[in-house]
Specification:
The complex is a heterodimer of chains A (414) and B (244).
Chain A (H helix, E strand, L loop, with lengths): L2 H11 L1 H37 L5 E5 L3 H10 L7 E2 L1 H7 L4 E14 L11 E8 L1 H7 L24 E4 L1 H7 L6 E6 L8 E10 L10 E5 H7 L5 E2 L1 E6 L4 H11 L5 E5 H44 L1 H9 L4 H41 L13 H27 L3 H8 L1
Parallel strand pairs in A: 4-8, 5-7
Antiparallel strand pairs in A: 1-10, 1-11, 2-9, 3-4, 3-10, 5-8, 6-7
Helix pairs in contact in A: 1-11, 2-9, 2-11, 2-12, 3-9, 9-11, 9-12, 10-13, 11-12
Chain B lengths: L1 H17 L13 H8 L5 E8 L6 H12 L12 E9 L2 E12 L4 E8 L6 E9 L4 H5 L1 H5 L6 H13 L23 H21 L6 H23 L5
Antiparallel strand pairs in B: 1-2, 2-3, 3-4, 4-5
Classes of the chains: A alpha+beta (414), B alpha+beta (244).
């Protein structure tokens, strides 16, 4: 007896019921895979965003570490500044591999609303020390091609040269050689001052906060904002990075009254924990969906067994053993769940873009990478889950069918 | 096998639909509901439609027209696949206006120029800048300057094309005074004034395609024919053989 064919035929007898049961399980699997993919993708996106900062530790003025995390991942300014000599002091630490000072300021962009002529948007201005910045971020490259060829960094003393992040160039429609206007209100002044820069380079897309910023020499940025000898952060890469080394480093530098040492591992943990509670709630919803789907499968197969009571009796009367009947019904359940699992996986892969769009619309997660990462391992786990679901939910209906007495079953089925 | 291939193709089709495509930057209102209500206080609802030339019948021909009539288009930032957003404004069931914006590269950054147009006459109701960072910003955003453009249509630009060649300074040119720089325009703002005027023309050309079913095309043809007719007698002697 070919059990596979027989099981398929039995399922096909009631295509609507089978289809609806498959749909229920497929949706539950799709939800579970999407959420698993989101969990993996979000962690990866956070890691990538943080790694693309180039440094492992930020030295910044004392304040809220959450603000620090957001500032570095999304851009922004600190309310407090560090004295510039902080860099020189920390540079003496033997555990430092490389170090870069950064001044972050916000320039106004005029007329960003039709309703209010005074309304402004902004541009994130990064004042950088070119050499140490490039050492810290060796992957940063200049965009090439028509309009972008010849991109280069400015000299550290250039006062009117600017390098644009990819998104700024795209949004402002700038190319190498174009002018770029920014309006800055210097510290202590009332009137904003418009400045004209020459675009000397446009960076390739990095997928980090650098895409949305503009870069000028550190001294130029300090001068523009009227904050000579002040820094927003000092980025540090340690020769050896571990929890112990970091604590030792922190211990040495927290003695400075004005600074806090923020490890980007801490930042990563903070960002991941921010969505942890939401993830737990969503996982609970997914679990409920799987349980409901399991009940649906069991109900569907039990109904099928009820309808075929007479037929099962005849099968037993002509020689089918209890094991044969058990195996047949169990196989039907398994097939149903495997097909539903495959459909659910496909649905999750296809729908992951939509899921990501919805998540991004609901929550500003502060990362630019794709948030849903559906790996072969995740799909394998989902399929394994579907098989287990099939095996578990099939036991009771299969046992019930196998336990039918042939004569009573034939009589019941008439 | 065929069934397998068909099934695979069917299952893979949605993947093609969700695959990412290069996204050219379009021009949308920052806050459509509030911005449109500001422009049309009587508005009760609005509709937002994205229009892309590659998805339109004759899209390539329209793009060529745009290139021919608005001047050279930037290959990167005014590309063929740039999406445009057309806002239709309604009072009850009646459409009371169209609002459409374009990006044009300015001297020191992008210029986002919007036009609100009357749906029946295609006349400009309001011209406004959503983004304009320029030494010319104050002069160009000035209400009196922008009011010059109220009531104009694309047909006026086509007529101007004729008069600019055939009879400069003619009082019959509907744009003779309109296209003059604002009086308080600083010297370093001339480039952004020119870009803005180009942006206005580009905006009206696109509105004619997206909303007005090319209703101003006869004016373009007439202007072109008049210019061609005017050029012929002048060209004729030059083509005659000369005898030495």
């Amino acid at each position: 007896m070919n059990f596979g064919n027989l099981a398929l035929k039995n399922l096909w007898r009631r295509p609507v019921r089978t289809g609806l049961t498959v749909l229920g399980v497929a949706l539950a699997v799709a939800v579970a895979v999407s959420l698993g993919g989101f969990n993996l993708g979000y962690k990866r996106a956070i890691s990538n965003s943080i790694e693309r900062l180039g440094f492992q530790v930020m030295i910044m003025a004392k304040g809220c570490p959450y603000e620090a995390a957001t500032m570095m991942l999304k851009g922004g300014t600190g309310l407090l500044y560090l004295p510039e000599d902080t860099k020189a002091k920390i540079e003496t630490d033997a555990s430092v591999s490389s170090i870069t000072p950064i001044f972050v300021g916000v320039a106004e962009k005029e007329a960003s609303s039709i309703r209010d002529d005074a309304a402004k948007s902004f541009a994130i201005v990064n004042g950088i020390e070119r050499e140490s910045f490039v050492t810290m971020k060796p992957w940063v490259r200049f965009q090439g091609g028509a309009g972008y060829d010849g991109g280069r960094w400015f000299s550290d003393t250039a006062e009117t040269e600017i390098v644009l992040g990819f998104e700024v160039a795209e949004y402002e429609q700038r190319k190498v050689g174009d002018d770029f206007y920014m309006t800055v209100t210097p510290n202590g002044a009332v009137a904003p001052v418009q400045h004209k820069f020459k675009v000397v380079g446009v960076l390739e897309r990095t997928g980090s906060q650098d895409d949305g910023g503009v870069f000028v020499p550190l001294k130029t940025a300090q001068k523009l904002f009227g904050r000579a000898n002040e820094l927003t952060i000092v980025g540090v890469k340690l020769k050896e990075f571990s929890g112990v080394k970091l604590r030792e480093f922190e211990g040495r530098w927290l003695k400075l009254p004005e600074v806090q040492v923020v490890s980007l591992e801490q930042v990563k943990g903070t960002l991941v924990s921010l969505v942890g509670t939401a993830q737990a709630m969503i996982a609970a919803v997914a679990l409920i969906a799987v349980v409901v789907a399991a009940i649906g499968v069991m109900n569907s197969i039990v109904m099928s067994v009820y309808e075929r009571t007479g037929e099962i009796g005849v099968m037993k009367a002509v020689g089918a053993s209890r094991a044969d009947i058990f195996r047949l019904v169990w196989l039907e359940t398994l097939l149903l769940c495997v097909v539903a699992g495959a459909a659910g996986c496909l649905l999750a892969v296809v729908g992951s873009g939509a899921v990501e769009g919805v998540i991004r619309r609901l929550i500003d997660l502060g990362v630019s990478d794709s948030l849903v990462l559906i790996t072969p391992a995740l799909l394998g786990a989902a399929m394994l889950g579907a098989v287990v679901l099939g095996l578990v939910t099939g036991i009771w209906p299969a046992w019930r069918a196998a336990s039918l007495h042939p004569v009573e079953a034939i009589r019941e089925g008439e | 096998m065929n069934l397998f291939l068909r099934t695979t193709a069917l299952l893979a089709a949605p993947l093609a639909l969700v695959s990412p495509a290069f996204a050219a930057i379009g021009c949308t209102l920052s806050n459509p509901a509030a911005d449109l209500k500001y422009l049309y206080p009587e508005m009760t609802s609005y509709r937002e439609e994205v229009r892309e030339l590659p998805r339109m019948k004759d899209g390539a021909a329209h793009y060529e027209k745009l290139r021919e009539r608005a001047g050279p288009l930037d290959a990167i930032y005014e590309a063929y696949d740039t999406p445009y957003t057309l806002y239709s404004v309604f009072k009850g069931d009646a459409r009371i206006g169209y609002v459409h914006g374009v990006n044009v590269p300015g001297k020191g950054g992008v210029i986002q120029l919007f036009v609100a147009a009357e749906p029946d006459t295609a006349k400009v109701r309001t011209l406004f800048f959503q983004r304009l960072e320029s030494p010319a910003g104050k002069a160009l955003r000035d209400k009196a300057f922008r009011a010059r453009f109220t009531g104009l249509t694309l047909a006026d630009f086509y007529k101007h094309d004729y008069y600019a060649v055939a009879a400069p300074d003619s009082p019959a040119d509907p744009l003779a005074k309109v296209l003059l720089p604002p009086p308080n325009l600083p010297a370093d703002g001339a480039a952004d004034f020119a870009s803005s005027m180009r942006g206005l023309r580009k905006n009206l050309l696109l509105l004619d395609i997206f909303a007005f079913d090319l209703r101003h095309e006869p004016f373009f043809e007439k202007s072109r024919e008049a210019l061609a007719a005017r050029a012929k007698p002048a060209e004729a002697p030059a083509t005659r053989p000369t005898s030495n």
